[in-house]
Structures are given as C-alpha cells and as structure tokens.
Amino acid sequence: MKLFFRLAKYLTPYNNYVIGAAISMLIFSLCNIAMIPLIARLSEAIAQKSIFQLNLVVAMAVGIYFLRGAATYGQGYLISFASQRMLFDLRTQLFEHLNKLSFDFFQKWRTGDLISRSTNDIDNIQNGISSTVIQLLPNMLTLLGAICYLFYLNWKLSLLTLMIIPLLSLIINKFGKEMHKVSSDAQKKTSDISSILQEKVAGVQVVKSFAMEKHEIKKFKEESEKSFWLSLKQVQINVTQTPLLAFIQVLGMVAIIWYGGYQVVTGKLNPADLIAFFAGIALIADPVSRLGDTNAIVQRSLASAERIFEIIDLEPTVQDAVNAHDIEIKGEVRFNSVSFKYQEELPLVLEKVDLKANPGEIVALVGRSGAGKTTLVNLIPRFYDATEGEILIDNIPIRDSKLHSLRSQMGIVSQETILFSGTIKENIAYGKIGSSDEEIKQAAIAANAHNFIIELEDGYETVVGERGASLSGGQKQRVAIARALLRNPRILILDEATSALDTESERLVQEAMDKLMQGRTTFVIAHRLSTVQHADKIIVLDRGKIVEQGKHDELLSKSGIYKMLYEMQFKEPA
Ligand SMILES: Nc1ncnc2c1ncn2[C@@H]1O[C@H](COP(=O)(O)OP(=O)(O)OP(=O)(O)O)[C@@H](O)[C@H]1O
Ligand SMILES: [Mg+2]
Questions:
Q1: Any idea where the ABC transmembrane type-1 domain is (predicted)?
Q2: From CA 501, how far away is CA 280, in angstroms rounded?
Q3: Are both 305 and 423 inside the same structural domain?
Q4: Is the CB of 345 within 6 Å of ligand 1?
Q5: Helix, strand, coil proportions of the chain in percent (round to 5)?
C-alpha cells in the first residue's frame, strides 16, 4: 500500500487533469446508472402500449449514450496525459539518479538490468496506471452507484447480492499476492535476458573469436524458456481467477433470481422493479469480473515500481558534502597517507600512499599490472573516496570541493577508450560543449589526430560507432586525448593513453603533450618506460605501496623494481 501511495504521489503535479478525468468518470458512471430506471420505464411503456413514452425513452437513451461517449473520451485523454507525464517524470528522475550514482554502483549492476528497468518496468507501470485509472476507478464508481440504486429499489435483494463480496475479495486478494510474486520473478528474468543481450552484443567479438555462438544461443534459450514459463504462470493465475470469480457470481445470481422470483410470485415486488434490479445486477457483474484482472495488472506494475524505487533509493557513495564549494585549481596535488579498498571485505589496494605533485609537474606512475596505478589516479577526480587519509588540491581537501567543479578542471584519458556514437567532431567536442571548430582542430593537432582525421572521407564529420568501431585502437586513443585536451584542464590524467600507438605516433603525441603539459599537473601511467623517462617524478607502485620514487636516473642507480622493469623492457632479446 505504501508503494501504491508513493507511486500515486507522482501524479499530484497533474491533479487538474486527474480531477478532470474523475469528473468525466463520474459522468460516465452516472450515465451507466441512469440506464437502470430507463429500462424500468421501457418495460412500463411497453406494458402501457404508449408510443410517446417509447419514443421518449429511446431518445433519452441516445442522449445518455452520447454523453457517455464524450465522457469516455474526456477520461481517456485526460488520464493518459497525466499518466504519460508522470512516467516522463519518473523516467527522467531515474536517469538523473543514474547519473548521480557513483562508479561502484555501475560496477555492481548489470547494464542490461538497468536498461530493462528504465524501459520494460516503466511500461509496466504505465499499463498499471491506465488500467487502474481508466478501468478500475470508473468501474468502482459504477459499482458503488449501482449498489446504492439497488438498495433503493429493494434492500433485501441487495443485501443478498452483497453477501458474495467478502468471498470475492478474499479470492482477489490471494491471487493478487501470488501475482505480485510471480511478476517480480518475471521482471527479474526480463532483466536477465536484456543483460545477456547487452553483454553478448557488446562482446560479440569475444563470442565469435571463441566460436561460442552455439553455446550463447543455448544459454539464451534457457533463460528465454524460464521467462516463458513465468509469463505462462502469470496467465495461469489470471485464467484460474477469472472463471472462479465468474462461478461465484453465478451462484449469487441464482440466489437472487430465486429470491426475486419468489417475491414477485408472492406479490411483494412488481415485475418491472425486478427487471430493473436485474439490469442493475448486470451493471455490477462487469466491473466485478474485471476487478480480478485489474488487480493482477496493478500488482505487476507495483512489482515494477519496486524495482525502480530500489535504484532511486540508492545513495551515491561519492557526493557533494553539505558545505562543498567551487574551487579554482592551480595544480598542486597531495596524497596524505591515503589507503583505499574497493569494498569493506576486500583487502587494501592502496596502503598509506604519500605523494606530492607541484603545479605543472609531470608525475609518472609505474609498476606491475594490478599494482594499483589506475586506482590511485581514480581517487583524484573522486571516482571513489579514499578509505583513509586525504587528498588535497592546493591544500584544500577534495572532499570539500564540489564534484562538478573538481572534475570540470580535469582531463582524463582512461585505460579503456570509449567514444559515443556520433561524429568525430562531436566526440572531441564532448570535452567542452560549445567549442569552436578551430578549438577542436587545435586539440586534434595536439593529440596527433588531425592528420588521420582529414584523410577520412568525411573528415571531422565521420560517424563513429557506439564504441568508436570504425576507428583503429590508436586512432580512438588519439581522439580521446584530443577530447581531454580540449578542456584545457588544470590536471591531466593519462592512463595508458599512448599504449595503442606505434613508436612514431607515440613520439609525436608525446611532443605535443610535452608542450601541453606545461603549466598543468599531469599524471601519466605507462607500461612502456620510454614514455616516462622525462617525467619530473617517477613513482613506483608495488602491491598498493610506493616503493621507490625519484627521477629516471636516480631510480636506475638503485637496484630496485624500476631498474628491473627497465632492464626487462630494454634487454636485447637473447
Ligand atoms: N572495481 C574493483 N573492485 C574490486 N577490486 C578492484 C576493482 N578494480 C581493481 N581492483 C583490484 O585492485 C587492484 C589494483 O587495480 P588497478 O586497476 O589499480 O591496477 P593497475 O596498476 O592499474 O593495473 P594495470 O597496469 O593492469 O592497469 C587489483 O588487484 C585489482 O584486482
Ligand atoms: Mg590500470
């Protein structure tokens, strides 16, 4: 019920539409109820053989039906407007929230699941609202009105009619609970299926290169099969419920027919009233039989709402402090005894890291794979917060800065190059929305990307795929570097940014970047040690600890890890 009210709250901004729809429904219901006395009058008119009365009744019926039609239009349009707007709000809120959530969330949750929640579950809610508001509410109104009228006609008969209601609600309630559970499972399955689709389509290269198509198809079929049975189970609940409800209704009817007939026979009730009473019962029968169906749909949409609120209720692990403010970065970065673990139960990935980068310095991070280099640089833009210790930029703890302010002054080229679908120009401009063509070109020149771009048929307007599919690995990297440079960031983070380049391109990018790095603090991670020789400071990480630091020559003169790594890379193959 709490869930229901929470969902209903989203409708409040559109109260006017909902009220309008409610009025239309009221008119609709009144029109329905007005048919009862009309039918009584019809039978009287026929009994009295009055043509005038007959015409009048028919004319009134046509008028009432016209009004009823107009009301149907009004309620359908108004409620759809309100519910579609509400879904728009909910979907936007979900997307906004997804954008706020931190890195750890996206590592835990599957993309396909999130997509399924933002599309499929939103659709379910929409279905739920249209059936509750468009069907359930007017039906309930008709039901209430008809019951009142029946009581007015004959209270004894009416009481008999109402006796079946507790029985009906018991059944509807029981089936509703079952439906909620099965729906939850079914929606989870839908998420699983979209996760498989998303992962396997995105990773099609791996699937194909391992010739795993058959295996994937088999797995997909298995999941689809489960989904099939869950859907069928939903249907099963519905088709068991509907005839059961109908049977109970018939029992009620039989009792009424018998008792009503008995009263007419004994002269306590006139036949026209009994006919009107039956017409009223017929009016009740339809909404009652729909109650079960509607409840099933409502339960399904509530299960979906649960899945959406589950995400909306998650707090981002990294967010602005209450007193956070904007900062103007000059470029000094300091780590004060920083330790970090990804999760409470996991071991430390960084342990008591102390380091200082002066404004404009180039700091290189080297170390074996898994040493913690990427983790270390990810703490600077606060992709994660340090578990212990603190990071200061220009002596201000980064936790006191607004995230937007902090990140907007950083340029980051991450280990995995991701380009969005769109043109090369758009991809570079992502670094700074609204930048001029000239700025984009300058950034591309600096990243040594300009030359290859103008050789493409459409130049800067070349459309690249979702993951930059039509570009080579090195080309993608250079576009990503241009994108980061365009921001003119105060702090530049390059995580293996030149790893996919050949020696020649790397040298060119290096030269350009040496120029660009001037005046900005740069963190470079590179496995190829040739890239980092000229850094102002080389930091050697091993198992999350800084084991050596200094300039290239200093480190070579010690016989530590750096020397060992260096010798392995430059030793002539034996
Ligand atoms: N999201 C994560 N959750 C849990 N553990 C992680 C996560 N990301 C990385 N790790 C672990 O943290 C350690 C350091 O990883 P990191 O990516 O920082 O290494 P790296 O030095 O950048 O390695 P490489 O040179 O291969 O890129 C590794 O042991 C890794 O398994
Ligand atoms: Mg890394």
A1: 19-300
A2: 81
A3: no
A4: no
A5: 65, 10, 25
Identity of the highest mean pLDDT range in 61-75, 244-258, 276-290, 495-509: 61-75
Q: Do 154 and 34 share a structural domain?
A: yes
Q: What is the pLDDT of residues 397-427, one digit of tens each?
A: 999 999 999 999 999 988 888 888 899 999 9
Supply the residue whose CA is at minimum distance from atom 29 of ligand 1. 370
**Residue found under tokens 């099963």:** 236
Q: Which atom of ligand 1 is nearest to the CA of 373?
A: 21
Helix axes 51-100, 15-48, angle to 10 degrees: 160
Closest CA to 450 of 463, 440, 458: 440
**Top mean-pLDDT range of 183-187, 485-489, 524-528:** 183-187
Judge whether 175 lies within some domain.
Answer: yes
Looking up residue 274, the CATH number of its domain turns out to be 1.20.1560.10
Measured by CA distance, the residue closest to atom 6 of ligand 1 is 342
Identify whether 39 is part of a domain: yes
- At 572 the pLDDT is 54
- 373 alpha carbon, closest ligand: 1
CB distance 474 to ligand 1 below 6 Å: no
Range of the domain at 37: 2-312
Q: Which pLDDT tens digit goes with each residue over 64-122?
A: 999 999 999 998 899 889 889 999 999 999 999 999 999 999 989 999 999 999 999 99
Atom of ligand 1 nearest to the CA of 368: 25
Closest atom of ligand 1 to 103 CA is: 1
Domain end among 312, 333, 355: 312
Residue where a domain stops, chosen among 468, 488, 508: 488
CA of 494 to the centre of ligand 2 (A): 10
DSSP summary character for residue 49: T
Q: Does ligand 1 lie within 6 Å of residue 544's CB atom?
A: no
Distance 351 CA to ligand 1 centre (A): 14
Q: Which atom of ligand 1 is nearest to the CA of 372?
A: 18
Number of domains the chain contains: 2
349 lines ligand 1 (CB under 6 A): yes
CA 2, CA 8: separation in Å to the nearest integer?
Answer: 10
- Rounded distance, CA 194 to CA 119, Å? 11
Please tell me the residue having the least CA distance from ligand 1 atom 25. Answer: 369
Q: Is the CB of 374 under 6 A from ligand 1?
A: yes
Position 126 in a domain: yes
205-224 tens-digit pLDDT = 899 999 999 999 999 999 99
Residue 429 has pLDDT above 80, yes or no: yes
Cα–Cα dist 87/11, whole Å: 9
Percent of the chain with pLDDT over 70: 98
Indicate if 303 and 421 belong to the same structural domain.
Answer: no
Ligand nearest to the backbone CA of 349? 1
Residue 450 in any domain: the answer is yes
CB of residue 373 inside a 6 A radius of ligand 1:
yes
The 10s digit of each residue's pLDDT in 484-515 is: 989 889 999 998 877 777 777 777 777 767 76
- Residue 108: CB within 6 Å of ligand 1? no
* Alpha-carbon gap, residue 245 to 172, rounded angstroms: 8
Distance 389 CA to ligand 1 centre (A): 19
Q: Are residues 31 and 152 both part of a single domain?
A: yes
